[in-house]
Amino acid sequence: MTLGTAATGLRRIALAGNPNTGKTTLFNRLTGSRARVGNYPGVTVDRHYGRLALPSGGETELVDVPGTYSLSANSEDEKLALGAIAGLHPQERPDATLIVIDGTQLLRNLYLVLQVLELDGPTVVAVNMMDQVREAGLEIDFELLESELGVPVVPIVAKRGEGLPRLVAALERVLAEPGRANTKRRWEPEAALEDDVAAVGRTIPLLWHRESTLRCRALALWALLSVDEEDELLGVPADLREAVRERRALAGREGRHIDEEIIRGRYDWLDEHIGPALVEGNAPKISLTDRVDRVLLHPALGFVIFLTIMTIVFQSLFAWADPAIGLIEDVVAGLSDLLSTHLPEGFVTDLLVEGIVAGVGGVLVFLPQILLLFFFLGLMEDSGYMARVAYIMDRLMKTIGLNGRAFVPMLSGFACAVPAILATRTMERQRDRLLTMMVVPLMTCSARLPVYGLLIAALYPPGQGEPFVQGLLMVAMYLFSTVIALAAAAVLGRTVLKGRRTPLLLEMPPYRMPVWRSVLRAMWQKSAVFVREAGTVILVCTIAMWALLSFPKQTAEDLAKRQEAVATNVDLDAEARAAELERIETEFAGEGLRESYGGRLGLAIEPTIEPLGFDWKIGIGIIGAFAAREVFVSTMAVVYGLADEEDAESRVLRERVRDQEWPDGRKVYTPLVCFSLMVFFALACQCMSTLAVVKRETASWRWPVFLFVYMTALAWVASFIVYQGGQLVGLG
């Protein structure tokens, strides 16, 4: 859906700025509770939009543009900033642009302002962080700024609301007099570069520049900086690409660098015309940020501090969310019991209880972890520490074709792949986001722990065998998954997602106290988007899995006959009769599972999984685990005829696993089979929630299908090597 004047009847203001300039804080201040979240047309990147009250009593629509350091971009996501400001199809051109800049980083932030002004549209500049400007002993000549830029420039402190009435009044004046937009050319390219701009400008689509000479020139400069052989831009006309290629080739033969000429031309103008507006006072030579960075960016100590902080975040996703997760599970279980008690037995009740309620619970159970993840990410971003995290980890991540921003999502994958994939939104480039999404599910998430715990305990019962062997095996599985994830990133980054590694370019913002209101609002809004959109797919998949494992339904006559035979057996006392009735019911449920469509699939895939050492019962567990990996344990409990969930968590299931045999008397769960099965679960994408959130984040089924296929193939090959290789060397 495209929002704006045509859709809402309101004039639109695009709110733009560099990251870490307080843009979101200002947005929240101006719109209050009237802000909503949507997607940009055709992509999954979130945009916030809300109503801004004007002094005259009217309203306008404010749209929060993705933060960007400039309008030059190689990725489709970064192009959104240009599209939202310039009004490139399918986005509508805003009626005005409000640019937020950090007063402590004036000249660097004004580079983006200069690009926006080149687009020939009504503009207002808000200079934020004025409290920090004063604390740093700096002075800004706002009269000179307004004179040189030709647009209103308003000093503000967004987190306190300082200067906002004056800012809103300036916006209303600009909206009322759009014809007064300053259209002068502020810097003049050299002759050779002017020829490049003219040549490329002739291929800019009319729909883009709308017969505006200044817009056409600005878009030609954007194309010369952004369009190349490895960009991720969509909708760029072929003749425009060819024109850029020809001018770049010509410049190369002449020994010129077009990028440097454009960037240098803009900064030279800023230094000459805007530089005098910034007057340094008696600021300390070494700021607090510099002193803190000496510790946090230290090659050794900084890394230790970072690991400590990440351990706290990691522990929170593991343990701090557990009470809330348990509460959600209790509520879902209570609702299931309530429906089962008060509704008649039958298809509708089963659908409600085991399909819909279980599906909704499967979505909501992730919410505490997602809320915590976005809370911590918001704190690190708002305080300025996230940029330091990317810098610290860049040295490691560049060896696998990524930059430092990929590390936080990968680390979060140890808790759960779903919030970890959502955390890839902190990465600017779509190729890097996709590559990280494709390897995050390989990290050992908490859902794999029940499977590892069952198999390791079945092999090495607690209190028996070598001490510490269980813990060492668990650590080995974590190390194994990490190594495979890094190796997969290196391979995919050189094949399927081939592309040059983008250097880590970021600005180290000064440390600031987080704006709690903005952090909490962003946390809630992003989590709500997950529940609303990814949750729909998870719910559908849960119902489908329930149907596979529930149909065809058994007839009740056979169970009734068995129960009657026990009830009339005079040789059994009351306690033995109750135990036998419970055993028969569980056995009957196990038979129903084996005869279900899911059970038949288990039998059908047995020839495929037998080379890995698995029988058809394990196949049923693998199919059932697609709903959630930990379901493997409870599915095996039903398959092996255990009475209840408590048995599934006790030594009874471990003993039953150890006792399983093939028809020829061989043990099913040998040490080699258990190792093979753990390797399979470590590498297979047995999680429909992960696939659902990948589908949501990529707006396509292509990538979740690819993820499922490549991880399943990798798991099969690795398990095959473990099992068959072990047999070859006599470990069977």
Descriptive labels:
732 residues, 6% strand, disordered N terminus, alpha/beta, 34 helices, two-stranded antiparallel sheet, 9 strands, 7-stranded mixed sheet, Rossmann fold, 61% helix
Draw up the topology in text.
Layout lengths: L4 H4 L3 E6 L5 H9 L3 E5 L6 E8 L5 E6 L11 H11 L9 E7 L3 H13 L4 E6 L1 H6 L2 E3 L1 H8 L3 E3 L8 H13 L14 H11 L4 H4 L3 H14 L11 H16 L4 H16 L4 E3 L7 H9 L4 H20 L1 H21 L4 H18 L2 H17 L1 H13 L9 H6 L4 H6 L7 H10 L9 H11 L9 H24 L23 H35 L5 H12 L6 H22 L1 H13 L6 H9 L6 H9 L5 H4 L2 H9 L11 H13 L4 H11 L3 H27 L4
Parallel strand pairs: 1-4, 1-5, 5-6, 6-8
Antiparallel strand pairs: 2-3, 3-4, 7-9
Structure description:
This protein is α/β, with parallel strands linked by helices and 732 residues long. Among the domains are: 5-180, P-loop containing nucleotide triphosphate hydrolases (Rossmann fold, 3-Layer(aba) Sandwich), CATH 3.40.50; 191-280. Helix content is 61%, strand content 6%. It has 34 helices and nine strands. The strands form two sheets. The chain has a seven-stranded mixed sheet, sandwiched between helices. A two-stranded antiparallel ribbon has the order 7-9. Mean pLDDT is 81; it is low at 1-6, 38-44 and 643-649.
